[in-house]
Design goal:
single chain; mainly alpha; 0% strand; elongated; disordered N terminus
Length: 190
C-alpha cells in the first residue's frame, strides 16, 4: 500500500464533496469541487486520480447538459487510462462516450465507440461489462437504422447475461430488447 499524504486526503475529500453536492442537486458546486480535485491531482502528478476525476467531471457535465464538454473530459480520461493500461476503465469511458454521442443524435460514431468498448472489455474478459457494451451497441445500431445488428447485439447480450447468471444484466438486456421490439412495431416480441 502506498502512503497518502495530506494532499491525497484533500483530493479524496474534494471528490467526496463533489459527489455530495451532485446528490443534493447543486451541479455548480459539484463541478467546482471536482475541478479543484483535478487541479490538485495534476499538481501531485497522480495520473490515475486525474483520470478518475475527469470521469467524475464528465458525468457532472453530462448531468448539467453540457454533453460536448463531457465528451472532452471522457477523451482526456480515456487517453490517461490507455497510457496507464487500465483497459476496464477505458472500455467504460468508451461506452459512456457512445451513450453521449447517441444522445447528441450522432448514431454512427456511437456505434463505433460502443464497438471499441466491447473490444476493450473483451480483451480483459469483463463479461458483465460486455453485456452493457452490447446493449449500448444495440441502441446505437437501432438509431443508425441497422435493426439486424441491433437485434443480434441484444440477443448476444441476453445470452451472455444468462450465461454469467447476472440478474441485473439480464433485466437490463430484456428491457433493451423489449424497447427495441416496441420501436420496431412488434409488441408481441416486446
Amino acid at each position: 500500500s502506498r502512503d497518502i499524504g495530506p494532499e491525497g486526503f484533500q483530493g479524496n475529500a474534494l471528490g467526496q464533496l463533489a459527489t455530495a453536492w451532485s446528490a443534493l442537486g447543486d451541479l455548480q458546486l459539484a463541478i467546482a469541487a471536482a475541478d479543484s480535485g483535478l487541479a490538485l491531482a495534476r499538481a501531485l502528478g497522480e495520473q490515475q486520480e486525474v483520470a478518475a476525476t475527469l470521469e467524475v467531471l464528465a458525468d457532472l457535465h453530462a448531468q448539467a447538459g453540457n454533453l460536448r464538454l463531457a465528451l472532452v473530459r471522457l477523451r482526456e480520461a480515456d487517453s490517461l487510462d490507455a497510457l496507464l493500461g487500465l483497459a476496464l476503465e477505458r472500455g467504460t469511458n468508451l461506452r459512456r462516450s457512445a451513450a453521449i454521442l447517441l444522445e447528441l443524435g450522432e448514431a454512427a460514431p456511437a456505434v463505433s465507440r460502443a464497438g471499441e468498448a466491447l473490444a476493450a472489455h473483451r480483451m480483459v474478459g469483463a463479461q458483465a461489462e460486455m453485456v452493457y457494451d452490447r446493449l449500448q451497441l444495440a441502441l446505437a445500431a437501432a438509431a443508425n437504422g441497422d435493426r439486424r445488428r441491433a437485434e443480434a447485439e441484444t440477443d448476444s447480450a441476453l445470452a451472455e447475461a444468462k450465461r454469467i447468471a447476472n440478474p441485473s444484466a439480464l433485466r437490463d438486456a430484456a428491457t433493451v430488447s423489449a424497447r427495441l421490439a416496441l420501436e420496431a412495431g412488434d409488441p408481441r416480441e416486446a
